[in-house]
């Protein structure tokens, strides 16, 4: 029990720190205007057009840092601040999401793997959320069986988070190159601002991977070493 509390507390603190870091970094560099003076939506449209992508809709929504590319519906969704913003933060995020659209067009393998794993990961998330409660209140699942199911579920989540890392790092790398080549960021300070925003965002995915790996090991190692209540 102490170990699970330490694991839960440690990974929760890691996630909160990563989230706080990306928000503070984003807000800091949202005060620095980019060279082009164009909005995130305008820059995204130019990047997609240059990449020969003409079937992706660019939309605005109100959720801060809820920006994402939806490959199933071919939609690039930007927060209002990034859709209308002209800062280094806004352009960095917009270009990053365009990076995912370019990955999709090029059938970038890690993105294809992540898309294929979405369904299984959704089920796995439901398992790790509800199975412990079912075990506590019903006692219908033995500790060993419960640990095995939880290990499998966390393994799926861990693999999903692992394959997400190259997807996100590659999109950020593309964003930096594209913004520089197109002249939207023109000075080392502006490029540095874009890099720091994207690097801070990437660490949230690293934190998610570390969290899932920690829980996987928590449930998996006792199975290997035979520490279960059925012995």
Automatic annotation (TrEMBL):
Pfam family, one: Zn_peptidase_2
Transmembrane segments: 144-167, 200-221
Keywords: Membrane, Transmembrane, Transmembrane helix
Superkingdom, taxonomy of origin: Bacteria
Alphabetized InterPro entries for the sequence: Zn_peptidase_2
Protein's name in the database: Zinc metallopeptidase
């Amino acid at each position: 029990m102490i170990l699970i509390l330490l694991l839960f507390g440690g990974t929760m603190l890691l996630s909160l720190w990563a989230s706080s870091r990306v928000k503070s970094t984003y807000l800091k560099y949202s005060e620095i205007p980019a060279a082009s003076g164009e909005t995130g939506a305008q820059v995204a449209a130019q990047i997609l057009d240059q990449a020969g992508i003409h079937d992706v809709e660019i939309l605005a929504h109100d959720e801060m840092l809820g920006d994402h590319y939806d490959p199933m519906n071919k939609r690039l969704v930007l927060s209002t601040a990034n859709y209308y913003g002209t800062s280094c933060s806004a352009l960095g995020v917009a270009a990053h999401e365009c990076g995912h659209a370019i990955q999709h067009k090029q059938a970038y393998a890690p993105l294809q793997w992540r898309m294929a794993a979405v369904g299984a990961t959704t089920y796995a998330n439901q398992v790790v959320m509800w199975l412990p409660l079912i075990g506590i209140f019903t006692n219908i699942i033995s500790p060993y069986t419960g640990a095995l199911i939880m290990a499998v579920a966390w393994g799926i989540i861990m693999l999903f988070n692992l394959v997400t890392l190259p997807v996100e790092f590659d999109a950020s790398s593309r964003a930096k190159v594209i913004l520089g080549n197109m002249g939207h960021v023109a000075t080392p300070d502006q490029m540095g601002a874009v890099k720091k925003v994207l690097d801070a965002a990437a660490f949230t995915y690293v934190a998610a991977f570390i969290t899932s790996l920690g829980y996987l090991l928590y449930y998996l190692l006792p199975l290997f070493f035979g520490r279960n209540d059925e012995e």
